[in-house]
Amino acid sequence: MKLPWLTILIALLAAPLPAQAGDDVMVMQVLSSTATSSGQPVVLPRKDAQIVVSIYHVMPGATLAVHNHPHPRYAYVLSGLLRVNNIDTGQTDTYAPGAFILESVGHWKTETSIGSEPLKLLVIDVVENGQPNVVPLK
């Protein structure tokens, strides 16, 4: 018995998302879910939550425009070096492979891939269902 819906589902899950920040940065969404692996709803204290897991590929020297995150964001450096400049606090941090980052919420910052190898990050966003977690400075 053929299951055409299964083929369609696999094709949709395998399709990469388009780049969101230009030619130097590619964002590939890995997971978007409103439920745990056992089917329990993911709930924030105030509203329904959505977990979005992405892998960022950032070319050496690329800098993301000034932005902030209105919701929690966690990142794990898989390869390369990341420099984060927090504009609000003046703090600058550099992260190497193996670093897990609990990103600031609501602070304006820039992020740069430093060094000679591409930066690769596993990023986990916890957002209100359907809401973005990157707000560019206008």
* Major β-sheet annotation: 5 strands, antiparallel
Which whole number gives the mean pLDDT?
81
Oligomer: single chain
N- to C-terminal distance: 54 Å
CATH topology: Jelly Rolls
Whole-angstrom Rg: 17 Å
CATH superfamily heading: Jelly Rolls
Strand tally is 10
Write the H/E string, N to C. HEEEEEEEEEE
Q: How many domain regions? A: 1
- Helix count equals 1
Q: Class, according to the CATH hierarchy?
A: Mainly Beta
**Percent in strands:** over 45%
Taking pLDDT < 50 over at least 5 consecutive residues as the criterion, the unreliable ranges are: 1-15
Sheet with the most strands: spatial strand order: 1-2-9-4-7
Shape: globular
**CATH architecture classification:** Sandwich
Helix content: under 10%
The chain-level structural class is: mainly beta
Describe this protein's structure.
By secondary structure, the protein is mainly beta. It has a single domain (24-136), classed as Jelly Rolls, CATH 2.60.120. Helices cover 8% and strands 46% of the residues. The protein has one helix at 4-14, and strands spanning 25-33, 49-58, 63-68, 73-79, 81-86, 92-95, 100-102, 109-114, 119-128, 135-136. Strands 1-2-9-4-7 form a five-stranded antiparallel beta sheet, with no helix packed on it. The protein has a five-stranded antiparallel beta sheet with strand order 6-5-8-3-10, with no helix packed on it. A hairpin with a 5-residue loop joins strand 5 (81-86) and strand 6 (92-95). The longest helix has 11 residues, at 4-14. It is globular, with a radius of gyration of 17 Å.
